[in-house]
Amino acid sequence: MIESLLVANRGEIARRVIRTAKRLGVRAIAVYSEADAGLPFVAEADEAVSIGPANPAASYRNTEAILAVAKATGAQAVHPGYGFLSENADFARTVEANGLIWVGPSADAITAMGDKINARNLMAAAGVPVAPGTTDPAATVEAAIEAATTIGYPVMVKAAAGGGGMGMGVAADEAVLRTEYDKVRAFAERMFGDGSVLIERYFPRVRHIEVQILGLADGRVVALGERECSVQRRNQKLLEESPSPAVSPELRERLLTAAVRAGEAVGYRNAGTVECLFDPGSGEFFFLEMNTRLQVEHPVTEFVYGLDLVEEQLRVAAGLPPTFDPDALAPRGHAIELRINAEDPKRFLPGPGAITAWSEPSGEGVRVDSGYTAGTTVTPFYDSLMAKLIVYADDRAAAIERARAAVAGFEIAGPKCNLPFFAELLENDEFISGDYDTGIVTRMR
């Protein structure tokens, strides 16, 4: 096993990785910005080093500063968490070039799946279903219009280098397409340094379902079930559950087979997620993208499979076999994760601030992965995620009931908080039925 691990991230995911590292006897090293000096992950690490001011470019995305800390502290490996540098192929290459172990997939796999158009083409060649769309970037708005005419309106206009629900627009006709194309292209150039645009069929009523994969040290790729991620605002997830209430045993087999095929197509190692769109009307699913890192929602998979995915990541990176038998995977029960954000529960606008009270729910089947405590401050410099509330029970109905009680027992005061939204969602008839899609939050508002 790896002996020392630098966690190149912050907040709840840094704290989460540190927890597993310490359980395994791995020395955990944290890096933190000046704005995060008082957060729990800094205190809980075996060693913590400041790497700069609040601006992520000067701290959590500062490759030179992170590697300098790794060298100074004698770190053996680097875990990137999610966000920041986690899907940066150049960073992965640089980590390994400096003699460190990268806890993630190869830089080549990150590169292959980082461009949505390239990823679509790779998946199509591997026999994974992809939605109708362009096989090359739409270099001009005229090319986008020509593609949309062939595909059929409405279409999704997407930044080829985008991710996390950013850099997307929907066009129902040519006039809107002209506007959205310019908007997405400008956003992509500004945010990702790449203005390439993809045109893809848009499905008005669709579910967002993903499959957790793990590329093992021996070269095998295994699928650890699916997660339902259709409760979203601005194309970003708010609640995830596993298993999906929309997935039949036959569909599950097809989804998991396609996800394994996707991982094998790029020689995938370590943890990753194959995201798909599922059309309940036709029963078809289509490859959306692959996230070449650990997902925010990984705890629901941990609950239903009884695993610690961070431990499995470390074992793969160290060249060790998994803790489980890949030929005897058996999910049990139902898990739900709620993303507790510092945001207005009605309009979902960020609302940072000092936390004056923080009391987490506990008990059987209740887990809280948090980045904050009372007396700390949610600053405007980073994502608004404060904590993840995860519940587990024997079935979906019992998990929903447990989630209701946990939400009611979670006290946060100071910053704005979306707990009232979840209290409303968990009583919503459409959600309770399990027959919902990515438009559920819009219909609630």
TrEMBL record:
GO terms for molecular function: ATP binding; biotin carboxylase activity; metal ion binding. InterPro entries: ATP-grasp, BC-like_N, Biotin_carboxylase_complex, Biotin_carboxylation_dom, Biotin_COase_C, CPAse_ATP-bd, PreATP-grasp_dom_sf, Rudment_hybrid_motif. Residues 1-445 form the Biotin carboxylation domain. The lineage of its organism: Bacteria, Bacillati, Actinomycetota, Actinomycetes, Micromonosporales. It is an enzyme of class 6 (ligase). SMART domains: Biotin_carb_C (SM00878). Gene3D superfamilies: ATP-grasp fold, B domain. Keywords: ATP-binding, Biotin, Ligase, Nucleotide-binding. Residues 120-318 form the ATP-grasp domain. It comes from Phytohabitans flavus. Its EC number is 6.3.4.14. It comes from the Bacteria. This is biotin carboxylase. PANTHER family: CARBOXYLASE:PYRUVATE/ACETYL-COA/PROPIONYL-COA CARBOXYLASE, METHYLCROTONOYL-COA CARBOXYLASE SUBUNIT ALPHA, MITOCHONDRIAL-RELATED. Coiled coil: none annotated.
